[in-house]
């Protein structure tokens, strides 16, 4: 179908949850390059919003999906599933311990984490249900994940929100201290806020939250849906801070494009769920676990993450050079291949995204006018240089206009 035919069908039959989308229809990809139905090519610095961690047509991932699809796509969790057990072991080892529950998305992983934290205290006779989360956070679109999301604009039309959430000013440790009450069960945090505009938690803040949780007997939940699976140059972004969360949530990059989410809980929290507590028809099925196994094995191979981190440094250095050259670039943030470039309010980030698209580069805009760069982890140095020189030309054009 042509792009125009698809747009027409979409307008007639698909709910308009995504507004007027970018008028591009991708047909296939190779490495970090995407091809569209009109014969154009794009270098991808968006990766399906931090999902396609191994890019397109990765031989190991494709082979794993193909081989599993030929044998068994799905079977119920009433039975044992080899790929699920293997993936759980790998994730647990990478997390230095814990047990895993599988679901299908980031929102679902966070829902499960919230349920787990509440049941943990219920089992101990303490009726604590309150979860502290951060303002400007993003935890997903299901009702509890939305209630955890500290952004009123997403919640407003859907009130009443499920109760039991309190919002903290991000990077303000005193606010966290003052908000803890007898009802508090857990603190749920992104160590780098992704949708919020690639805002990094300071070391003092993130470590301070862990210390507070230990002091007060609370559970620390780290939402690694966007930051996890190598995105920041380490398998889990919490590793940059030297902390040990009780619960970690994953999705996005875990399946490299096949939907899968996961919750890893360690210590006493690992045995909180029992038969009947939680479940999912599709969660952890053979296809998604085989894909995630191939992704996890690949990114934990010797040297893979070091290379991704190195490429992240190259991109960040280049973005910082642009900041020196153009006064309307306010700040460059993030680490690994999760980077943000905040622009002055006078320059429309969305316009820059459109100009980059015209030049054959995919990026997007998050939070307060922040360009976001989350390419496949296999992006090459040459592709990074190409993006940087395109951005230089775009910024030059904007300065002259
Ligand atoms: C940190 C974080 N948590 C949760 C989610 C929700 O994930 P999903 O869209 O897979 O439900 C997102 C999505 O952007 C996210 O960035």
Commentary on this structure:
- There is one protein chain.
- This protein has 401 residues and is an alpha/beta fold.
- It has 2 domains: 3-58 and 303-400, Aspartate Aminotransferase, domain 1 (Alpha-Beta Complex), CATH 3.90.1150; 72-299, Type I PLP-dependent aspartate aminotransferase-like (Major domain) (Aspartate Aminotransferase, domain 2).
- It has 13 helices and 17 strands.
- It has helices at residues 3-13, 47-50, 59-71, 82-94, 106-122, 143-148, 152-155, 173-179, 203-216, 286-299, 304-325, 349-358, 381-400, and strands spanning 26-30, 33-36, 41-44, 99-103, 130-134, 165-168, 184-189, 192-193, 199-200, 219-223, 247-250, 261-265, 329-335, 338-343, 361-362, 364-366, 370-373.
- The strands form 4 sheets. A 7-stranded mixed β-sheet has the order 4-12-11-10-7-5-6, with helices on both faces. Strands 1-2-3-15 form a 4-stranded mixed β-sheet.
- Strand 2 and strand 3 form a beta hairpin.
- The model has no long low-confidence stretch (mean pLDDT 97).
Chart the SSEs and their pairings.
Layout: H1 3-13, E1 26-30, E2 33-36, E3 41-44, H2 47-50, H3 59-71, H4 82-94, E4 99-103, H5 106-122, E5 130-134, H6 143-148, H7 152-155, E6 165-168, H8 173-179, E7 184-189, E8 192-193, E9 199-200, H9 203-216, E10 219-223, E11 247-250, E12 261-265, H10 286-299, H11 304-325, E13 329-335, E14 338-343, H12 349-358, E15 361-362, E16 364-366, E17 370-373, H13 381-400
Parallel strand pairs: 3-15, 5-6, 5-7, 7-10, 10-11
Antiparallel strand pairs: 1-2, 2-3, 4-12, 8-9, 11-12, 13-14, 14-17, 16-17
Helix pairs in contact: 3-10, 4-10, 11-13
